[in-house]
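Check the record.
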Amino acid sequence: MTKPASFPALGNSPRPPAPADAPGVIPDLIAELVAGPLRREQALDLLRTHLGRIQGRVQDAFEAHELDGLPAARWLAALTDGLMLAIHAYALAMSPARNAAEEAEAPFALVATGGYGRGVLAPYSDIDLLFLTDQQAGPRAQRVVEFILYLLWDLGLKVGHATRSLRDCMEEAERDTTVLTALVDARFLVGERPVYERFSAAFDKSRRERGLAAFLAAKRQERAGRHARYGDSPFLVEPHVKEGRGGLRDLQTLYWLARYAFGTQRMPELVGENSPGGGLLTEHEARAIRRAWNFLWTVRFHLHYVAGRAEERLTFDFQPVVGARMGYTPRGRQDGVERFMKHLFLTVRDVLRLTRVLEPAIERAALGPPAIRRQGDAALAEAGLALADGKLVAAPPNRDFSREPVLMLRIVKAARDRKMEIHPLAIRALIRNAHHAAALRGQPEANTLFLDILTGRDAALWLRLMNETGFLSRYIPDWARIVGLMQFDTYHVFTVDEHTIEAIGVLQQIERGELAEIAPVASELIGQLQSRRALYAAAMLHDIAKGRGGDHSELGARIATEICPKIGLTPEETETVSWLVLHHLLVSQTAFKRDIEDPKTILDIADLVQSPERLRLLLVLTVCDMRAVGPKVWNGWKATLLREVYWRVAEVLAGGLSVPERDVRVARAREAAGAMLQAWPAAEREKFLALGYPGYWLSFDAETHARHAALIREAESVQAPLTVRTRVLEARAVTEVTVYAADHPGLFSRIAGALAVAGASIVDARIHTLTNGMALDTFWVQDAAGGAFDAPHRLARLSVLIEQSLSGRLRLRDEIRKVRREPARLRAVTVPPRVVFDNHASNTHTVIEVNGRDRPGLLHDVTAAISDQGLQIASAHITTYGVRAVDVFYVKDVFGLKVENERKLASLRRAMEASLTPPGGEGGGMVAAAPRAAADPA
């Protein structure tokens, strides 16, 4: 058998010249390794130095912006080729034949597979190798393989490897798509080239005989599973750059399909009439693939270098660093990191669109054109549509999306009405002709069709398709500004466009009755609405002005007045949509940031809403908005608060609350509580009824008053200085903690500190001082998962910690510091501290709103600052948006009056701003013990 002189096989000279296709090989390195040859330890030091030089050269050039990610990946792979040739030569020299049988062994070829086989490597990627033999590897070949692998491992490289004969390769490829895919990428490195060439010929023959169908089906199934693992939405705010939807692996899948079907090496080979498949890509699409490939590789390289490991998920802590390294700086009101992430998400969308363009074209070129049926369906024919493979297409040859853009809406509506799929080739045409949607603006038929799709069955599904194809951005230009737009926070899970489509999906779930248990009031109200089209339009436009600076609700309301008439809504509907967009945060902000027991809170909303229909619309829109933020945002406690706001405002609009004055309501509450205590002696009953101030009687129902009465009587009977009771409210997903103790300044703060140490998060609180000088404070808390704090041992510990805190035996600050720190990925999100005073929201209290970074003990520090200023806290409303805490307190001074003196307010502001900085100046490196009630803050 003839062996090429430049590629040593087993038994050949271990000192080959460097091959031309392996830049980075240093002949002197090979000569030094095999001279003697060197002892293994010396060789390892030499190779380690060379490897460091290789990696350093690529990193220095990349970080100096001398080359982007894709050229860097190719250069690193080429330099690694040289290293592998040197290691191969050294392994041969260190493993001489021991006998004649080993001398006569069949040689092997060293082959790169996987990403390395494609000629690209990330800084910390695995190196995938195939040791390829004609027959089973003999004893010497096994020693050489083992020597190479141990050398690579000792160099700190991660290696994926297999030793297979030609027959093994064919059989494994038949059984395992992963192996088949790896072999698609196979690239000869060194060794016996004829062995590789025989494999390549056999593999190409097998590929052609097998056909594309089975491979295509397997890759689609693999892709679906991968997307399910790493996030089926391409617009998650912490995307997986490699495996997520629209990531590098999706681009690689297109490469695999093209190479398997046509044997192409590069995507530009698919451009032009004479290319395989007859021109599957346009020049523009080929450039788009190149841009996406290069951009994602650049992000991946930065991510690896910043993390110092093979990190593929672009988490919050990496996003600002990678964005800055890539040159993204603030522009206008948009941060550099948000600009970077928008570019990433637009690239991801391009990958999705390119997949929809190229994959069906490859399939059809390999498997043949579809059989199109034009007759037999008059309605379809009249609409300009036909069937191909049982799926919808524009009817050829005279009907197409470029000449008749309204077909793009007709095909979506037909697919929905008939519960059919749109043919991949039609989706390809939608993408390529999306720019023609601009011609449909204001066109009556287009408006009718669009509103039908927006308000019809499975609207979210079809809107998502229209968004991914680019139709929505052309039909509604303002929509283009929110595509791929993210907010750099830990609260919102999706980009703005994806969140909006999710909200419409939730609205349809409510209409179908699927959320009757989770959102019963919204589910009941949905059937009573008279403005259904306006509600859907408001859901679509509620965040349309995000990313423009200023109040997105006010800006969005103005934009809605421009968009709504253009898509066919009436003036009345337009006014309703604009009003809903303007006030879409009203109900949630009131529920989570205001004291809904304060009549003024409810009366102010009622005065703003005025209409029961608008109140119903607002409640439903609020539920949709909140549930679309992310899977962990909604819980029973928030549902309860929203229901309370709705029913109280509805009562006012029905004329209920405006009749009884405060004193009358207090008297009624006392009467109801007295009725619950009829079995008590009259003297004890009257004693309890004399304990509460008006605010106490209006804060709870009669049943709760009766429980408090029993608690107080029991405490006084045993002269207990402290009584703690807990009650799990499963329907509300909270645990109620009631504390009865002697009132003193800082009581609330010490209890809050104890709860933080216990790992409980406060979601709401009511603080009452009774006429006997005792405090009756009620806290509603949740666990880390946003559910009721209900583990018996944790409840017992919670009570002990409260007692220790109030007695002074618990060193709160030291214990709070021990509570776990937040994950590193969240520390990059900054939250500027902010304190706002409001003397108009309540007739009787000053309302203080505090914004700051959440952390264990934050509530303890903030309330301690309030108490140190000589103020009394009447109620607290605790909310978090990711790592941002928004806590609202209703306070009075020692005389029971509002705080209106400017000097006093200035002093209070300084104290509270100081309390928002973590002890030791950690700058927000800690997070709350658990997530708390949340709503969309912006």
